[in-house]
């Protein structure tokens, strides 16, 4: 099969061994708290570029009108 390129862990920046997956590394080497922080940091660094979900127009909040 094709050679898989080395993967760097986004949390500790360790280059993983070719026979290890990032998922395996994350599960074994990092706590849920660390992973959560990573996700939050990524989310924050995206700044305002994340599209606002269209929840304002539909969904549970859409019943501003009186439905009578
Ligand atoms: Zn790591």
Describe the structure.
The chain is mostly helical and 68 residues long. It contains 2 helices and no strands. It has helices at 22-29, 32-45. The termini are far apart. The mean pLDDT is 80. It comes from Halovivax cerinus. This is C2H2-type domain-containing protein. Residues 9-30 form the C2H2-type domain.
How do the helices and strands line up, and which of them pair or pack?
Blueprint: H1 22-29, H2 32-45
Bound molecules: zinc ion.
Zinc ion (ZN) binds at residues 9, 11-12, 14, 25, 29-30.
Give a brief rundown of this model.
This protein has 68 residues and is an all-alpha fold. It is 32% helix and 0% strand.
Supply the key terms.
single chain, 68 residues, mainly alpha, 2 helices, binds zinc ion
Order of helices and strands: HH
| Number of discrete helical segments | 2
What's the overall average pLDDT, rounded?
80
Shape: elongated
The helix content is 25-40%
Largest sheet: none
Class by SSE composition? mainly alpha
| Radius of gyration from CA coordinates | 20 Å
- Low-pLDDT sequence parts: none
Give a list of the ligands: zinc ion
How many E-type strands? 0
Protein name: C2H2-type domain-containing protein
Domain C2H2-type: 9-30
InterPro entries: Znf_C2H2_type
């Amino acid at each position: 099969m094709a050679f898989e390129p080395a993967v760097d862990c986004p949390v500790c920046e360790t280059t993983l061994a070719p026979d290890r997956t990032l998922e395996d590394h994350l599960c074994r080497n990092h706590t849920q708290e660390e992973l959560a922080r990573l996700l939050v940091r990524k989310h924050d660094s995206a700044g305002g570029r994340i599209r606002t979900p269209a929840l304002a127009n539909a969904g549970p909040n859409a019943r501003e009108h009186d439905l009578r």
